[in-house]
Amino acid sequence: MTTATRPLTPVDVSQDALYVEDTWREPFAQLRAEMPLSWREDSPFGGYWSAVTHDLVAEVELRHDVFSSRWDKGNITIAEAVNGEGFPNFIAQDQPIHTAQRKVIAPAFSPSQMLKLDKAVKARTAQLLDGLPIGETFDWVERVSIPQTLGMLCILFDMPFEEWRDIKRWSDWASSISAENLNDEYRAQFLGQMGEMLARFDRELEDRRGKPASDDLLSRMVHSEAMGSMSPMERIANIALLIVGGNDTTRNSMSALVEAFDTYPDQLERLRADPSLIANAAQEIVRWQSPVTHMRRTALVDTDLAGQTIKAGEKIVMWYISANRDEAVFPDAERFDVGRANARRHLGFGHGIHRCVGAKLAESQLAMVIAEIVRRNIRIVPQAKPTRLASPFLHGFTAMPVRIESL
Questions:
Q1: Are 284 and 403 a contacting pair, CB within 8 Å?
Q2: H helix or E strand, kind and range, residue 147
Q3: Alpha-carbon torsion 399, 400, 401, 403, what sign?
Q4: Does 321 score more than 70 pLDDT?
Q5: Are 94 and 69 in contact (CB under 8 A)?
């Protein structure tokens, strides 16, 4: 099949402007209705397929034997590499490497560990909200979303909380996928930041290596066969994955709560009347925000999907942000609905073997923030439009001026 006979994506949905200006809904709605699988020949990231419906995204995720996540085949983002570098972390691997390395990390989020983490989340959430001013404007992203999620990362790493700003900086560099960054100057800065991150974490890894194995993530890594002898780039990639996955997605959903409750104030009232809906509301905000805009796979062989032929080596982008607005699965999908019966079917954490290993902790953090807002009988009122992240990879906020009002 030639590219001329393929359904051609009319809008390059990898453009930063769609997400900065919050205008992504219409082009994705058009694609879902007219061409659920389409090809874009020209973009700053080269040609790519777009899968935009819930069923197609789930199918690509489940066909991991054909659609590869491997870093040396193209990695997991629309960019060919992470700022010009292969990033061999465990989600940018196929089986059996992916499975072996994931098993090292997964026990940190087991039911028994989650009981401990839930207590820490609850205490941290209450402490953060206790320190917020009433009736004064402040930045919700800076005062709540970032310290909440990075604080939990410091607990998982058993590192001092005072280092959260450094971890945030490294996380932002590691997750920065944008056409604006495809240049040598940015790549040099990126490598400098990753080198600084590695030097700091290598000190922690060596400290854990000399001690008995414990529950923190760094100890689990150095005391495992699958991750105990990683190369420097493997260490950089896996540390970057843990800090990005452990804070960016949760913090952007946590910020989206403000926007959701402001747009749909009746939903906050529903939660006040029925707090049993809080856990479901945490699922719904991940669906509604879709903090990871996309993930990418690379075809290992020629294969058919939705009546089209995907050629070996071509990239296919799974647009979670669109799949989570699929009306065929989520009626009235644009509405934030804390009682949505199938909110858990969202693909915000991925699907299949690559589903986010820390999803339970993310859900706990979101639920605790919602619960505290409900318990304190307050509302968070935006004071200006938020500023949004310039990226087709992470769907988030850089600032959100708000004021707390008591009801």
A1: no
A2: helix 146-157
A3: negative
A4: yes
A5: yes
- Written as six digits, the tokens of 323 are 């799949």
Distance between CA atoms of residues 193 and 188, nearest Å: 9
d(CA 38, CA 56): 12
Task: State pTM to two decimals.
Answer: 0.96
Helix-strand-coil percent breakdown of the chain, rounded to 5?
55, 15, 35
What does the alpha-carbon distance between residue 359 and residue 27 come to, in Å, rounded to a whole number? 29
Enumerate the β-bridge partners of residue 403: 137, 381
Beta strands in 122-265 (DSSP E): 137-139
- The SS3 of residue 38 is strand
Q: What is the 3-state secondary structure (H, E, C) of 228-267?
A: CCCCHHHHHHHHHHHHHHHHHHHHHHHHHHHHHHHHCHHH
Q: Report d(CA 361, CA 109) in Å as an integer.
A: 7
CATH number, domain of 263, equals 1.10.630.10
Structure-block tokens of residue 383: 């004071």
Quick check: 292 and 61 in contact, CB under 8 A? Answer: no
CA separation for the pair 271, 282 (Å, rounded): 11
Q: How far apart are CA 202 and CA 196, in angstroms?
A: 10
What pLDDT sits at residue 85? 75
pLDDT 10s digits, 171-201: 999 999 999 999 999 999 999 999 999 999 9
Domain span at 142: 3-406
Give the bridge partners for 298, in sequence order: 68, 315
Count of domains forming the chain: 1
Cα 228 to Cα 209: distance, rounded to the nearest angstrom: 9
Buried/exposed code over 354-370 (b: 16+ C-beta within 10 A; e: otherwise): bebbbbbbbbbbbbbbb
Q: Distance between alpha carbon 274 and the CA centroid of its chain, in Å? A: 29
The CA distance from 161 to 358, in Å, is: 20
The encoded tokens of residue 148 equal: 């909440």
> Is 80 exceeded by the pLDDT of residue 3?
no
For residue 108, what are its two tokens?
A: 């940190």
